């Protein structure tokens, strides 16, 4: 289809990237994200129950707060309209976008996924501790950090998790393209990259010298269950490696607005083709891809167009939301970067999108972790029928007659997969 020819995957090159569920609720009160009578998981264990891990960079602190409790769909019940806002290479720098969007999330009953880049917790002077596959020691296309940047990023990661958000990984050096890029890496090389990304999170105190700082309040070996690869490259070998390491999902693919299935045992939850208002084709549901279709590879295009370009991103995502909400209710997956491209217009557009969609009835703005918890709680035969619904199409006869007594697909990975293939 024409749209796929216009997909461009984002590359972040700055040294430090300025860069809740159906039948369940949260501890944030009633409203768009909570249903009456539902229960949330308890808050973390008290301070005296904290158990430090390793050098004290991370710790066991009990169950993560603000986590909804998923329930199975009942016959005739509409699925919630899930929306996942996710951030690639999450880190806090002078623009303070990480901290800002944490507040935006709390104000709009939204939890999100922050894909942390491991090298943002490694200081420049210790860069040789990172040995990227197919590159020499100390190489990174997004640089490293300094002590202040590490402290700021750790503070936001800690707060984000306590707010109920998920901490995933965007790995380390962000290498793209045919010359040593992640698309050329073997399964073994991916395992090395994953191990190093985990290690930098688990040892940030030793590397930064911030030994008196508070630990991250989670065990990263257990917290880390999903990722998005740099430039959406190398998915096949990454998924093979991740499946061996206990990951539960991947969001490195390209697809349509249909319900996700599994790939090598992991939930395959891709970015999606969404409307590009005013154009005859669709583009990927990521800020970078809208930018490329507006100002090319120039990150600071015509200032006179900045407002219109941001509006185009916001309106395209809202159109995608409306298409799913009135149709097949497929989760809407949105990817972002903490960047000020084209005067910061995309950050303004994403904030307006969050404010618009996350407060809608029957809508849940959730993390990937929360989405896969809901998917895992469903009847596989019902999920198979959901996957057979085409983009923007509700079940024949309406949701009150869903699921059909004779499922169109019967295997857990069911559905024809036709819609996914067309978007690849």
From TrEMBL:
Stored InterPro entries: CE4 (IPR052740), Glyco_hydro/deAcase_b/a-brl (IPR011330)
Transmembrane regions: none
Listed Basic and acidic residues bias regions: 394-403
Region annotated Disordered, chain positions: 29-79, 394-424
Biological process terms in GO annotation: carbohydrate metabolic process
SUPFAM superfamilies linked to this entry: Glycoside hydrolase/deacetylase
Protein name, UniProt field: Lipoprotein
